[in-house]
Each structure stands twice: as structure tokens, then as C-alpha cells.
Amino acid sequence: MPIADITIIPIGTETPSVSSYVAEIQKVLQRNEGKVKYQLTPMSTLIEGELSDLFDVIQQLHEVPFANGIQRVATNIRIDDRRDKKSTMEGKLQAVKDQLNRS
């Protein structure tokens, strides 16, 4: 299943802090639970789901700063779409943990 790493960057905010925008983005993700799985990290948000659903949710997330008065937004998207076997966020982490336990 595809996994996307997304960073939404509102440009032209009054303060260096963007936590209020991140919180609004998380609310959009909560509304899309069941459609995608997501995980907030200190630097970005990971979402997992069918590719068409990811693109739909990414568009919703990209719109959040605009809906809050920002006039310019930069969105970075990185997608890992492995099709030779099932891939999940948890599975990718477990594979690393398994390698660590072998040492």
C-alpha cells in the first residue's frame, strides 16, 4: 500500500510557529480516518492508503493554510509505492527492528 510523506509549508505567516496549521491538518486527517491511516512526526506527516485516496487527502491538506488566510503554500510530497509485496508503515518499522535484533 502506498505511503506518502507530506510537509505543508505555509509561506508568509506572522510567526515562525506553524503548530496551529499542523493542528488543522491533523483535524482533516481525523475526518478521513478509515480512508487513510496517518502518523504525525516532528517534521512531517505520513499517510497510508490507496493511491487515489492519498491524492484526494493530500489536496485537502494542501488547502488548509489557504482556508486560514495564507496566500502561498509549498507542499512537499514523497510517495513510496511498493507493489511486489504488501507494505505498511508498521511493517517498515518492524523490518528495521528485526534487523536490529539480529545484531
TrEMBL record:
InterPro entries: MTH1187/YkoF-like, Thiamine_BP, UPF0045_domain. It holds the Pfam family Thiamine_BP. Residues 84-103 are annotated as: Disordered. Residues 4-97 form the Thiamine-binding protein domain. GO terms for cellular component: cytosol. Gene3D superfamilies: 3.30.70.930. PANTHER family: UPF0045 PROTEIN ECM15. Belongs to the UPF0045 family. This is Thiamine-binding protein domain-containing protein. It comes from Fictibacillus arsenicus.
